[in-house]
Amino acid sequence: MAEVRVKKRFVASAKCPKCKAVDSIVLFKEQGVETIECVECDYREQQTDDKVAKKAGGEIIGVFKP
Questions:
Q1: Which InterPro entries match (predicted)?
Q2: pLDDT of 38 higher than 80
């Protein structure tokens, strides 16, 4: 069976909430859910599109959809 590769993108200047490492956060979609993950520690967070849209306010211009 073919392995499905997930395209991961580093988030510039992002700091991990757990280990505080800078430039260690990657962003990717996993089964349609936006996921961020730290490559230095085991931190991982998932957000549905609804949660992302609710957080997008104020100074954020828009939500990037790869």
A1: YheV (IPR012658)
A2: yes
